[in-house]
Design brief:
A hairpin with a 7-residue loop joins strand 2 (32-39) and strand 3 (47-55). A six-stranded mixed beta sheet has the order 2-3-1-4-5-6, with helices on one face. The two termini are 30 Å apart. With 194 residues, it is α/β, with parallel strands linked by helices. It contains five helices and six strands, in the order E-H-E-E-E-E-E-H-H-H-H. Helix 2 (124-131) runs antiparallel to helix 5 and helix 3 (138-149) packs parallel to helix 5 (167-193). It has helices at 15-28, 124-131, 138-149, 154-164, 167-193, and strands at residues 3-10, 32-39, 47-55, 70-73, 93-97, 119-122.
């Protein structure tokens, strides 16, 4: 079944690389995948979108993802500037790079119709700074996405990171992804207990 992900962030945050690594992780699991960006103005800090489609069969669609099954938001400053949630399905996953809750981010009322076990925030920038030394949250968010969606495994995400970066940089990003994965797993267990 076709699964479509839309990733929002800003230029320089690794939005396009995140979509590429997610597609590689899916490919490593024997699935068909495609990843591609959508640029407005191609400058550092400008809003950027990238898309990833994953399916068990060949994907023939080539247009942007208008009805995503998942949103990964790499920069929470975009929440009230861009219509990030356009078209997202009610059963969709929403993962936001933030230390704050959905209520604290000012979108608690908006997500009331969504499943709580598919909504999550993870401090991906902090994890990237801790492990990588740079504020590039993409790998940590992919680890979190693997935990919340179970669409791809953490092992495949780590292999895709290793495929993308030189070993030393990859190892640091993998550490960030692993920690994010565990954080999201913990949050999901708390939601199930509530």
């Amino acid at each position: 079944m076709l699964f479509q992900t839309r990733i929002h962030g800003r230029g320089g945050q690794g939005v396009v690389s995140a979509a590429e690594m997610l597609s590689v992780a899916a490919f490593l699991e024997g699935k068909h995948a495609q990843a591609f960006p959508s640029f407005g103005s191609e400058r550092m800090g400008a809003p950027v979108m990238a898309f990833c489609r994953i399916d068990d069969k060949e994907i023939r669609l080539r247009e942007p993802v208008m009805r995503p099954d998942a949103l990964i938001i790499q920069d929470p400053t975009l929440l009230h500037q861009v219509d990030l949630f356009s078209g997202v399905v009610a059963e969709g996953f929403i993962l936001i790079n933030s230390t704050r809750s959905f209520d604290e981010l000012g979108i608690g009322d908006f997500v009331k119709g969504y499943r709580l076990d598919r909504l999550c925030t993870v401090p991906a920038t902090e994890l990237a700074l801790k492990h990588v030394g740079r504020a590039v949250p993409n790998a940590a968010l992919l680890g979190g996405f693997a935990a919340i969606s179970a669409l791809v495994t953490l092992e495949s995400v780590c292999a895709a990171i290793l495929d993308k970066f030189p070993k030393k940089i990859a190892d640091a990003n993998i550490a960030a992804a692993r920690e994010a994965y565990l954080m999201v797993q913990q949050q999901m267990m708390e939601v199930q207990r509530a």
